[in-house]
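[Meeting: bench + compute handoff]

Bench side (C.D.) handed over the final construct sequence. Compute side (W.E.) agreed to return the predicted structure before the next meeting so the bench team could plan truncations. Sequence as handed over:
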Amino acid sequence: MLQKTHSIAGLLAAECVLAGFQQPLWTWESAAVLLLGCLAGPLADIDKPSSTVAKIFFPLSFLLKMMEIRHRTLTHSILFLFIVCMLALPLPPIFFWCFVVAFASHAFIDLFNEQGVELLWPLKIRFRLLPKFIAIETGSWAESVFRLILFLLCAAILVKGILGLNGLSAPSFLLRIFA
């Protein structure tokens, strides 16, 4: 998936975390959480040298390249998610959960890609949620449709937040998005 798709998935994850914390969308803290979600969503692509994230965090990206870490392996694995959780522990709870859920959204939506993800890295077993013949190819029209759906979900949550439905728990909030 492209960076813009991962950013929107991270934004959606951040909105869900805000809903879970029953945090209104129109505060400075919420704005920071939403921005963090947009930035954490594409972060796992630091293992792909041509990605924007890899260029921003060049020293770490270079280190991964020197270690011969391939794309969609270590940084997309459950092991790396655990490491990210440990590193994010000092953050306040709402920022911790936003960062972790937005980061995890990356590997999750890459599971819809035809190449799959090595979730159990260092085991070289690739997982994907869709059969290869209907999986979403990076940069394809199917990814554009997928990104549009994510965007519409983000917009729906935003509209519901504006209408004052922020006091709901995350599951009931998500169930009532289109109610």
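W.E. noted at the follow-up: The chain has eight helices and no strands. C.D. will use this when planning the next construct.
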